[in-house]
Amino acid sequence: MLEEYSPKLNLKNYAIWDYSDLRGFLDGNASLRSAYGHLVTAGDVLSEMMHWLKLERPNFVDVMHTFLQKELITDMSAKLQSAGEDPDVHIPLAKVFVDLPYVESAEAAVLISAEEEKKLPTVVSSLLEAGAAILRQTIAQSDRRSKRNPRSRFVIVGGPGQGKSTFGQYLCQLYRAAILNNRPTEKLDERVPGILKLLSKQRKDSGGLPATRRFPIRIELRNFAHALAADPQLTLIEYIRHDIGRLGSSSLSLNDLKTWLENYPWLFSS
User: Fold this and answer.
1) Which of 192, 170, 175 is nearest to 183 (CA)?
2) Cα-based angle 176, 182, 185 (whole degrees, multiple of 5)
3) Are 220 and 123 in a shared domain?
4) Range of the domain at 243
5) Which of 55, 56, 67, 123 is nearest to 264 (CA)?
6) What's the total number of domains in the chain?
7) What stretch of H or E contains 215?
8) 131 and 264 inside one domain
9) Given pLDDT bands bounded at 50, 70 and 90, which one contains residue 201?
């Protein structure tokens, strides 16, 4: 029929579209589909939902850099109250911190000789070395459960005022500085560059800032205990979420935090 009517209607050419042709045409033209409500597909609806959900989710880099800067400034001074220092006196941590040797047990600490003590590894150096290890395992590695896998949990034992909390504070400062060190100056708080300079100078002869970057979270148990007393149902992860959201100036959901914890390397210290 088209061949018969083509000369009469002066048709230059013609084509017959079947279902697949029409569907392919509509699939490739979202604006055409949206102009006619009955042509909108389930994929269009899901795509639009994902667009809006993505807009509402906080940006990891922006939130964490804001959070790390505020934590860096808060922890810039040594907290020496347990050692008898005046809490009103602020001493830069980078100027007074000394890495100390350690042993694996209380018995070894008693029995070690002065000569052996000089050869002992130091706390921060050992923790930085452990922090440089890749802890994410493949399924095959998890099945083998090799005893050579690096340790990821450490406990520092010592008496009051011997520097246990200071080790965690200093270690977190190093990881914060490693992340913020290459951040454009105009995006940093005016106090941050000075703190970064002090830490870099202090670490110059000790291997520098950590090459392997981890996002540090320091949990002061005293503050967590106060929050837990006010809300007995509070969980640790919820406490961390609230802290990051508050200091990172963002409305952070629990699912966002869980996703971040799964995808980025972290350091937790208390």
Assistant:
1) 192
2) 100
3) yes
4) 60-269
5) 67
6) 2
7) strand 215-218
8) yes
9) very high
